[in-house]
User: Which sequence fits this backbone?
């Protein structure tokens, strides 16, 4: 049982909803950052403006000779330019006069203001909280030695302005996030329409198995995805056609030896009912049965080899192709003892499967032996990774040349000879699996058919052993 992880809920959502959610989160974070920056900037600007205003007023009032009247008598605060300002003084000894207006709560002064009275600082400005609210308090030296003039102005108007600003930022930020959500959803729905169409097409293909290509629109990433999907469909369709063709051809080729076996067995049964066959006829019939069984065995082996088209090689190792050629020649020479094999093989090291390579070389040699005349010669040359096998037969016609490596293809002349038409197809498959190639043509000066098998490699073994030249008469 698979237990969903803590983030699996996110991936259970549709792609459009995830894009919308990400767009909303991004816009929301941007709006929040801008709102905070705007709020902090305005707050700082308001305090800075207020500080400069208080400082300039305090410096102007400090030059007045009536400073004592301003602080000790009930003088209207509009005298210093504002109706919400409290005026007071603080001496170097800590004596405080004023800072009370209209019966309001006193403002407690402290060290910063006292340092101005003592001449340690030119001026100070800070926020002090009282029972009546927050006040911005500025202190400057007065015209009396050892006394500092203190002006305090309420921050109520600043707080009101900031509250209004915060409300406006919140409302417009929320509206912006909502608008971004709607826009993100619309963009996601419109932008992902090709993806939905591609998904629907893939589901239709899975349901109907109709490998029709998808219409490609534009040249963006979705169009590239659709093109790649069409390429995959084409490859899948070709693979399915090859599979069907292989099954059909295999069924046809398997039917021939099976029909022959059934016919021979029926003849044997009927002959036994009539008293049996003569020894010579029985031997001939049994030889034919053995031949058909051998043909059937070879055909099954060839089909098995072709079925490994996309499989991983079982044992890949450095292989000297000259040794492979020598072994293959010895095997074919035993089956075609009347032929002469002229072999010149220079050492050529490849990386691959030794049994598969030997099978490919053997198939080429068997094909040459099948078409060579009695007492003919087969020329085998291996030079710098190119294996040439030439016979002295009648050669390959121009009509058959493009098809000699097709599966189950057999020319008109070969239909009366043993074989399944898979040998050369297996050669091409093994060559391509090892990164090489094979081609056919006319042999000169032999006059028959020639095949060239090319495989990548080097003249030296992996351990840098010197190359040898193997010549077989």
Assistant:
């Amino acid at each position: 049982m698979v237990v969903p992880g803590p983030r699996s809920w996110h991936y259970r959502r549709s792609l459009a909803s995830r894009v919308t959610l990400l767009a909303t989160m991004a816009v929301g974070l941007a709006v929040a950052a801008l709102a905070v920056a705007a709020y902090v900037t305005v707050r700082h600007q308001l305090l800075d403006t207020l500080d400069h205003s208080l400082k300039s007023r305090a410096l102007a009032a400090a030059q007045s000779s009536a400073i004592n009247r301003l602080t000790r008598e009930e003088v209207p605060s509009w005298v210093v330019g504002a109706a919400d300002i409290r005026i007071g003084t603080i001496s170097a000894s800590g004596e405080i006069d004023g800072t009370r207006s209209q019966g309001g709560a006193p403002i407690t002064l402290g060290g910063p203001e006292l340092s101005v009275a003592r001449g340690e600082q030119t001026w100070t400005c800070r926020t002090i909280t009282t029972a009546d609210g927050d006040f911005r308090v500025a202190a400057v030296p007065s015209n009396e030695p050892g006394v500092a003039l203190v002006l305090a102005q309420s921050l109520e108007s600043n707080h009101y302005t900031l509250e209004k600003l915060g409300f406006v930022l919140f409302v417009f930020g929320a509206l912006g996030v909502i608008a971004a959500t709607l826009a993100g959803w619309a963009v996601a729905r419109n932008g992902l329409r090709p993806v939905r169409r591609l998904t629907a097409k893939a589901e239709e293909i899975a349901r109907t198995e109709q490998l029709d290509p998808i219409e490609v629109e534009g040249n963006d990433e979705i169009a590239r995805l659709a093109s790649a999907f069409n390429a995959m469909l084409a490859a899948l369709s070709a693979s399915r056609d090859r599979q069907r063709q292989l099954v059909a051809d295999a069924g046809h080729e398997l039917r021939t030896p099976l029909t022959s076996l059934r016919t021979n067995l029926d003849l044997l049964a009927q002959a036994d009912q009539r008293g049996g066959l003569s020894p010579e006829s029985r031997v001939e019939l049994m030889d034919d049965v053995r031949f058909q069984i051998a043909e059937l065995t070879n055909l099954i082996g060839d089909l098995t080899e072709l079925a490994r088209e996309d499989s991983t090689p079982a044992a890949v190792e450095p292989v000297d192709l000259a040794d492979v050629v020598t072994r293959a020649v010895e095997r074919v020479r035993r089956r075609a003892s009347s032929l002469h094999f002229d072999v010149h093989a220079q050492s050529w090291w490849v990386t691959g499967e030794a049994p598969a390579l030997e099978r490919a070389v053997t198939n080429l040699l068997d094909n040459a032996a099948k078409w060579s005349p009695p007492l003919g010669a087969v020329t085998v040359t291996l030079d710098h990774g190119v294996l040439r096998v030439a016979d002295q037969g009648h050669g390959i016609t121009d009509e058959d040349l493009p098809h000699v490596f097709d599966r189950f293809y057999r020319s008109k002349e070969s239909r009366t000879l043993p074989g399944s038409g898979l040998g050369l197809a297996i050669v091409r498959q093994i060559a391509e699996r090892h990164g090489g190639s094979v081609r056919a043509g006319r042999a000169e000066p032999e006059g028959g058919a020639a095949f060239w098998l090319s495989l990548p490699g080097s003249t030296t073994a992996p351990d840098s052993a010197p190359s040898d030249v193997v010549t077989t008469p």
